[in-house]
Amino acid sequence: MRVLVTGAAGMVGRAVAAHCNSQGDLVLPYDHESLDISDKDLVMKTLRGVKPEVVINCAAWTNVDGCELNPERAYAANARGPENLAKASREISAVLVTISTDYVFDGEKQGFFTQRDQPNPQSVYGASKLEGERRTQLAYARTVVARTGFVFGPGGSNFLSTIIERAGRGERLKAITDAYGTPTYAPDLARRLRELAQLDLPGTYQVVNAGEGVSYAEFARAALDLGGYASGNLESVAMGSLNRPAPRPRNSRLRCLLSEAIGLAPLPFWQDSLREFVALNSPNEVAAKG
Predict the structure, then answer these.
(1) Fewer CB under 10 Å: which end of the chain, C or N?
(2) Residue 233 — very low, low, confident or very high, per pLDDT cuts 50/70/90?
(3) Within 13 Å, how many C-alpha atoms sit on residue 1's CB side?
(4) CA 10 to chain centre
(5) What was the pLDDT predicted at 284?
(6) Which among 211, 255, 4 is positioned nearest to 109, based on CA atoms?
């Protein structure tokens, strides 16, 4: 396939480009500097010029507190940008796969959120991503929306991705005990995004690793244990104690009602993918633990 990847400098974008390359695709990677998806004319010119068969949109502004303080930038990146890609993809008849977030839900439900649950975002970030879902699907019928959350992987800058590196430096760590999600390993997410592109079955999918959800603190303890680090430097805190500008859902665990129905096997259990991730960062410790 001829695959254009936006946001290709980010953690998920790099994972998508690497996976597609490994499958023999011709990958056309664009970072924010080379393709700002909020620039409608540039998006149209670029897609007309390179004519991909598939567009996988990994570009977004994911700074949740930043979005709360700058809604205009949030909507430009997370709503109008995907809409621009949808319109350009429609013109060249390319499949569009665009990533959304577990933060479209309010977090008030017990258990897993599925596609049957009504989105009710509590933050500007979540609202802008939900608007991006709606705009892309209205603009182009061949749009696949893939909601995900608690994403971790090589090169990531979030807490889940940096826990081992920071533990190795002996830093004191704070992890939230009362916010829960379903961890998603970036390489597993990348594989599923390509599968969805190949299937070309429009709709809203929820892509996370298998297993029950966990809190940030539980995830952190599991990572530290796999890496052979003591958890003495890990402080458990309540989400409300951090006084951050943007509200977050207390529970954003996801489950998909569609994936298995169309023949897609569950992604690996998050614990297995976490083991693989930690092995890449501290292989000696994992080997020693057997």
Answers:
(1) C
(2) confident
(3) 23
(4) 10
(5) 43
(6) 255
Which domains, ranges and CATH numbers included, belong to the chain?
A: 2-149+186-210+251-267 (3.40.50.720)
Residues 86-142: pLDDT tens digits?
999 999 999 999 999 999 999 999 999 999 999 999 999 999 999 999 999 999 999
Beta strands at 151-152 and 26-30: parallel, antiparallel or unpaired: unpaired
What does the block give as tokens for 231?
Answer: 């958890």
Q: At what angle do helices 159-168 and 216-227 cross, to 10 degrees?
A: 40
- Judged against a pLDDT cut of 90, whether residue 288 lies above it is answered with no
Non-local CB neighbours of 153 within 8 Å, separated by 6+ positions? 11, 12, 15, 161, 185, 186, 187, 277
Please tell me whether residue 107 adopts helix, strand or coil conformation: coil
Residues 6+ positions from 105 with CB-CB distance below 8 Å: 113, 117, 119, 120, 121, 126, 249, 252
- Assign 202 to helix, strand or coil: coil
Helix/strand/coil for 1: coil
15-21: average pLDDT: 98
- Note the residue count of the chain: 290
Q: 148, 206 in Cβ contact below 8 A?
A: yes
Count the Cβ atoms, other than its own, within 10 Å of residue 231.
17
What pLDDT digit, counting tens, does each position of 182-212 carry?
999 999 999 999 999 999 999 999 999 999 9
The set of catalytic residues is: 125
Determine the Cα–Cα distance for residues 20 and 24; give it in Å rounded to an integer: 7
Segments of 18-122 assigned E as strands? 26-30, 54-57, 95-101
